[in-house]
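Example record for the data management plan.
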Amino acid sequence: MVAYRKINIAVACNPVHIAKKTRRKAVVGIGIDVSHSMYGEKLEQSIECYGDCLDNFKPKDQVALFTYGSEVSKLHDVMPVQKINKAKDKENIRKSSGGCTAFYDSLILSVNSLGTKLRNKDFRNVTKDAHFQVIMISDGEDNRSKATLQEAANLVANPGVPNFHLVVVGIQMEQSTRETLKGVLCAKTRSRIRNE
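Corresponding structural encoding:
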């Protein structure tokens, strides 16, 4: 099943493209929508996409994992890809499912988490010259966040981390949702949209 490979909106660039083309390390926050609308096939496509992202990063790249339904949960903080237990992550993603969609809250938490790691002295050797990425995997519009789309767009425009890339992978995403995200997130940045 490869339907998720048709990326509806990718702000900045494709995560696989970055991982293969760069010699720099990547520090990545991945947010996966586990709301009720993602139940079944869509959630399985998201989990497959997560696994493919991990397979395409370098072993020493750092990845944090978040899920979001009505609430945002951090499943694990940034850790080297080589130490991630994919089977456990996939099981925990499935257990997290339910609720509405807090997309903007998850995006903000993911970006802020990367910024915290950048400023942490213990992570200086990890974050030096790194690409910072947030990958959001979702099927639709936010209907639960305390934050607004405008607040999320402002943070994307000024994330407080260098070499920042935001990628939104649409899982059977409606065209209207794609246009809303594209219009606001890209208007604030010099980002480009890639449809694949």
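Summary line stored alongside the record: Strands lie at 26-33, 62-68, 72-80, 131-138, 164-170.
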